[in-house]
Amino acid sequence: MKADMEELYRSMARIRFCEEALANLWQRGIISGEMHLGVGEEAVAAGVVAHLEDGDALALDHRSTPPLVARGVDLVPLFLEMIGDERGLCRGWGGHMHLFSREHLACSSGIVGSSAPLGAGFALAAQYLAPGKVAVSFFGEGAANQGMLLESLNLAVAWRLPQVFVCKDNRWAITTRSRSVTGGDLLRRARSFGMPACRVDGTRVEAVWEAAGKAVRRARAGRSPSFLLASCPRREGHFLGDPLLRVYREPLKQTLEIGPPLVRSLLSRPLQAFALRPLYMGIIGKTLTVLGIEKFLLEPDPLCRAARLVPDDVRRRIDQEAREEVERAVSAAMERGKRHA
Amino acid sequence: MKADMEELYRSMARIRFCEEALANLWQRGIISGEMHLGVGEEAVAAGVVAHLEDGDALALDHRSTPPLVARGVDLVPLFLEMIGDERGLCRGWGGHMHLFSREHLACSSGIVGSSAPLGAGFALAAQYLAPGKVAVSFFGEGAANQGMLLESLNLAVAWRLPQVFVCKDNRWAITTRSRSVTGGDLLRRARSFGMPACRVDGTRVEAVWEAAGKAVRRARAGRSPSFLLASCPRREGHFLGDPLLRVYREPLKQTLEIGPPLVRSLLSRPLQAFALRPLYMGIIGKTLTVLGIEKFLLEPDPLCRAARLVPDDVRRRIDQEAREEVERAVSAAMERGKRHA
Amino acid sequence: MPKMTFAQAIDYALGEAMARDERVVTFGEDVTMLRRNLFVRFGPRRVRQAPISEAAFLAAGVGAAMAGLRPVVEIMLVDFIAVAFDALLNEASKVRAFSGGGWNVPLVVRAACGGGYGDGGQHEQCLWGLLSAMPGISVAVPSNPADAAGLMLSAIDSDDPVVYLEHKLLSDYWLDYLGGGSRGTVSFDVPREGAEGEVACPPSPVPIGKARLVAEGGDLSLFSLGVGVHRCVEAARSLAERGIASEVIDLRSACPLDTELVTASARKTGRVLVVDEDYIAYGLSGELAAVLAEAGIKADFARVCSEGAIPFSRKLEDEVLPNVRRITEAALRLCEGRP
Amino acid sequence: MPKMTFAQAIDYALGEAMARDERVVTFGEDVTMLRRNLFVRFGPRRVRQAPISEAAFLAAGVGAAMAGLRPVVEIMLVDFIAVAFDALLNEASKVRAFSGGGWNVPLVVRAACGGGYGDGGQHEQCLWGLLSAMPGISVAVPSNPADAAGLMLSAIDSDDPVVYLEHKLLSDYWLDYLGGGSRGTVSFDVPREGAEGEVACPPSPVPIGKARLVAEGGDLSLFSLGVGVHRCVEAARSLAERGIASEVIDLRSACPLDTELVTASARKTGRVLVVDEDYIAYGLSGELAAVLAEAGIKADFARVCSEGAIPFSRKLEDEVLPNVRRITEAALRLCEGRP
Ligand SMILES: Cc1ncc(C[n+]2csc(CCOP(=O)(O)OP(=O)(O)O)c2C)c(N)n1
Ligand SMILES: Cc1ncc(C[n+]2csc(CCOP(=O)(O)OP(=O)(O)O)c2C)c(N)n1
Ligand SMILES: [Mg+2]
Ligand SMILES: [Mg+2]
Fold first, then answer.
1. A86, A129, A151 ranked by CB distance to C68: nearest
2. Residues 6+ apart with CB under 8 A from C131
3. Which of A260, B29, B153, C273 is within CB 3.0–4.6 Å of C186 for a Cys-Cys bond?
4. What local confidence, expressed as pLDDT, does residue C339 receive?
5. Residue ranges of domains in chain B, CATH in brackets
């Protein structure tokens, strides 16, 4: 079987436009709290979710909208939920980190790592109630150091759960370079629990689709769980308004905010380790720089990459349809939200 | 450097006689609660602890007496603690699962897996307060599925902690065959976190001593943590009075206790899966048999093995000295305990 | 009605529920052996051995319950729930709220609790206070075989998470396992009416949140649950000898509380003594005090609870856990108006 | 005395403690950035980045404290303590007891808590009730910069574990991070006297367990901590307009409780209203009710708390968290003797 590039591209476009709409609503103050976008993860979400069918389950983390959009969750209740409306997907109780759709067997949690055991539970239930169905857990590379996630890798193997673990490796956990606090290599780590694991370029939807297909089929056949390590960029910082990104967006303002206290610390008494302080300052500076460079120069945009695999006119048509769909959903949500308020 | 076999044997003999004394006190009802013995683990405890020096730390699990005895904890307060005396090592508050010796930087915990992060903390403190000192964590192969232990493997590598993880693989976690609930292989698992790991026959003290020496030196030099997987038999069941062992010790009595309810279940209505029930019954039976056979036929006794490496007369002298030392300590403890009661 | 031990009653109810409903499964460490009678009946698919990974398998229980199973997850001793706390605090107890009422978690967490056999403070805690502090979870604590069976049935039938606590002093096999009952050389203060008794056949459900009036009396209300109930009954006997008539109420669950029965009794007697094997601070005794105060009941009030960590030494332990002497003394002080 | 924000005050005290005592170290996720001012001053050895492994690094904090360090371990948001609960419940809080008093754990657990910015129920909990239910641990909850600095010093100086909770509504950088304060389009009901104020230089310790009398009054006692204190002060103002004089007490710590001040105030006013952003059941309000009842104080009693999970929607959230309207109404009912 070959990937249906048009459908994958459509899925990715829908995700991207939804994320952009969310960013816009958030910037306008209509969405409250943190807002972790999945911009950059479109290929992973689209490529994996394309293999799911009715009765399959999804356990998601704090970047839960892309897989839900790909899964076909109704956009109007989704946006209504985001704006805290009581006719939202969760009646305004969940919000963007706790999106639940019973109909799609999809849940999310803001506790890093918990999507793994929750997904294991879905997979376990499938063994009894719906053989042949699978559960997919999405999480980040930072979550791969969380105990319950590591336990789940073992549990899935021990119980032969029809589960697929999808690790979205964007190399960062908030402001921490994950490599700097992670021992060994995640692929070997997953394999060491006795499940097949493969690395895939998470900016290439066709590659994700291919690898995910194998993993899902394996799970469906009841053969074993698998682990997918998909590298993908973090194009919008950890969350919207990420102070580190703001250093680049509003360099003057942020430097004025962050700078003076840092300089004060540099000179503060007693002068313990005085000679070393510029070095420490340098570490902070370097983190900021790396974050900035990665964002602006090096990271490929998965949507652009996918676009190249679709005929131009088709792509334009899909773009327009997806954009209109999202715009309609946002207006409908805003409309109903207002009427209700 | 070569192992000082006499000293290692002495350490093992002391451990064994202490464990036997504990068993005796427990059987007489003088020690309350569970009693997990370390009979079978003498070579691991002796071989590892022989490398420790002042300022090194120990984090232990529910089989904590062997390493403490090897470490030179005073036997009288140790026994006094076991009998719940207020002049015991922990004034009668800790008991056999919560033995603490501040003087030896040694702690234990009955929560499976916790010795790993507690040991990480000791190692962390050493980095600041006592460079060159190390921390050793002891735990079982069953604990290797506990999240905080897995996290600790990563933490130790990420922070380059001077820590040695010692996994005593006795193949069982209470009545569970660990292999049946463990994915992959523990050696690969430890290595996948980026630390050296090696397997060693935990019934051969000279082999343990050699492997532990490398690991401890590596930690002392600040180079990295290591993982030791030492296989060792579980010669006394999970704990004293283990009902599964009793099937062999008091076959008639136990069969009378365990049997009839099982048969009742076999025949209970409604007869779901009736045809399969004898199979299920067989699984129970097989577990019991495997446990029994392992104990009585296959398992080598580490103490006997070590004895062969020591001249006969020396061994006899050591045996006698150790036995007398333990007997003296037990009598002193019982004496004081009585005086106090 | 046949006589059963406390432990038999629980597994009897669980077995009946499993026979009745395919969706009821149980998993946890060592269940093959701990529940061997159910294992022989239902096999390894429905009585499933788990690795020592409480955080993962309890959260898996949450997911499985969301997807339509009715799992009874065993966490051997309730003390170990600490390593799996997130599954309760941030997942199980919140799904109904977060989903706007659209999704629920029919999960039972089964664990043994309580002390009195000298196993030390990491294995003898009760923790029903801690567990009741999470909105969205019920906590059932039976004190006798009939309730043990009835509450287990209700827990399994409940559409929301229930923690079911089985006191080890009432459960012969736990005492045998952990207290070393196999030795003839130890004995435990096991309340007989708790450890064995009649159980309806088939077992009849006991609603969670309905307390039981164990003894009537007009001078003093004794509120407790689990083993504490039996200690209260014993204390009430010795109080009766001094002419004090105590009302003993078995709360049966720490959450929800049967505020109706509790307030009625307190109103009647005007004196309340809470007997709680769990920790004194921020626990059952506090919540009861607040419930009474909110209802405008200004009863005399005292509490006999565990004041801190439970010591290993049997002698020390007997002093720390609420015992008949402490209960009686506190009751007398209360009745005499002494502080 | 210089003016500081709440957040500055905490890190100021922490920085002073680190400068004074080499054994004070801090670690947790993202501390390089979250504590960048301390990082620049003390470097990566003493401000140490951790993987997302709270269970391991909090327990490592326990071990490190036992071995002589004085770690301040950051658990970003207190909600996440659930994944590391064992380190507190079964390790940190029990070492002193288990070792027969011979060993102690000078550990500070620092976490942000509280809601009011629309982040949903897994990120906005208070949990000081849950944390206080473990014997052997103190829980400090400052409500203003001076206390924030002073309690942090005392926490670090304490020889036993202290959980130090930093309310996000008072901490500008957390609000900026999690509430998205960088947008000009949102606003939060930040209590001004809590978010900024004078701090002694050098900071002076505030003993843990000593409450503060914020306002005197004879008609009614309002007990609270954290942001709740400011809500009480505001309610007291509007009550004063109706001729009701409220006494406002900032408990400053959920455990230990300043029972002396609390009972004195309740005795004086005869009416107690507990305002608690944490959950209503099995929490602070209950414990206070029991403390009062035990002391024989039969005051009128009511509580305004969070009744259950905190909803995401700002509108719903404002209703669930104790707000000035709910406090005022409850106070009025209490003063009018209505239920
Ligand atoms: C148990 C827990 N610890 C910490 C956090 C705070 N937190 C939220 S997202 C995040 C980073 C997660 O990194 P990763 O898993 O790589 O996902 P990413 O955000 O990069 O997609 C952290 C530490 C949390 N929500 N839960
Ligand atoms: C967190 C936790 N879960 C379960 C238990 C109960 N338990 C005590 S010992 C044990 C088996 C441990 O197996 P292993 O680590 O292999 O050590 P062994 O007893 O074989 O030496 C279990 C499950 C516990 N004490 N703590
Ligand atoms: Mg990441
Ligand atoms: Mg083992």
1. A129
2. C78, C81, C88, C137, C139, C163, C254, C255
3. B29
4. 62
5. 5-235+300-340 (3.40.50.970), 243-298 (no CATH)
